[in-house]
Amino acid sequence: MTAGVQEAKARVRFTVYQPGIAPQQVALHGDTITLGRASDCTIPIKDRFLSRRHAEIIFDRGTWYVRDCGSVNGTLVNGVKVVDPVPLRAGDRIALGD
To answer: Is 47 helix (H, G, I), strand (E, B) or coil?
Structure first.
């Protein structure tokens, strides 16, 4: 991985919003971030509308992508249902669960 890609990867952060909980700033570390109800997910989220392994955020060839893991209620990026992995850009909104 080139220094530029490592630097760009290190700067990526997102905010997790959950009802009744203060927003949480999360820095992305590693190449695969799992989101879901399971306690062993990288980012476990307690929401009855989430699957145990709901979605993944994946770093591949210099780009972050979001991928739905076959969840029951789906994953949205900017209001559009994720069918295939979607490349992420600054300001994108990922919606899971309720």
So the answer is: coil
Q: Rounded distance, CA 25 to CA 17, Å?
A: 9
Distance of alpha carbon 25 from alpha carbon 87, whole angstroms:
20
Name the residue among 85, 38, 94, 97 with its Cα closest to residue 58.
Answer: 85
Write down the residue that tokens 């591949």 correspond to: 60
Nearest Cα residue to 55 out of 16, 20, 24: 16
| Angle, alpha carbons 13-17-18 (nearest 5°) | 145
CATH code, 3-96: 2.60.200.20
Reported as a single tens digit per residue, the pLDDT across 30-41 is 889 999 999 999
Looking up tokens 């992305």 gives 28
Rg (CA), the chain: 13
- Of the chain, the percentage scoring pLDDT greater than 70 comes to 88
Q: Which residue is associated with the tokens 């699957």?
A: 51
pTM: 0.83
